[in-house]
Amino acid sequence: MNKLIILTTIGQLAQAGLQEMETSFQKLIENHKFSENNATLTEIVTNYGCWCSSVAYNHKTNPGITTNLVQKKPVDEIDNACKILMDSYDCTILDEECKSPNATTYKLDVASSHKLACKKLGNTCEKNVCAVEQHFVASLVRMIKKGGAGTIFNEQNLHTSGFSHENNCEPEFREVKGKNSRKCWGAFPKRFPYEVQKHLAMAYIGGI
Question: pTM of the prediction?
């Protein structure tokens, strides 16, 4: 595992474009109390489990990192929502629609306190980034409302409680071999990448 990549991506987090998601999140939970008072979406996305981590976030939103992050399955429902978000980010780059999804801005229609919609957007990158980010926010808010005033977090999966991304997630950074080594499947906001050669090999032996 390349620890330099991890340290570099954490260092870049301050430049990441989380503002729109944070605005949506705070707007949608402003009238709903839950035990993590004053929790920010940024804290949730970057400090929980395997996929809700600063390593995963920066790796999946930075086209300058030419490796494929492979790690354990999501630890729970929250982490799975983050995996969907991270995979979709990855695909905006692989589809060559976004140069920097973490720096892509867009405008929201905030007229409703129950649902925030993407305003008419000028290009495909803005449209897809807005779709995947707002889908993630909506998923997280549903979990919070479903949990009532209780917690939606498993204490043992919080990085502040000792959860180690390096040890618990066992991340691997595989070099991307060639422009077409990975493709994407599905539609946004749940589009995800797959390894082309692995897919072809499994199809050949009847695995998929």
Answer: 0.83
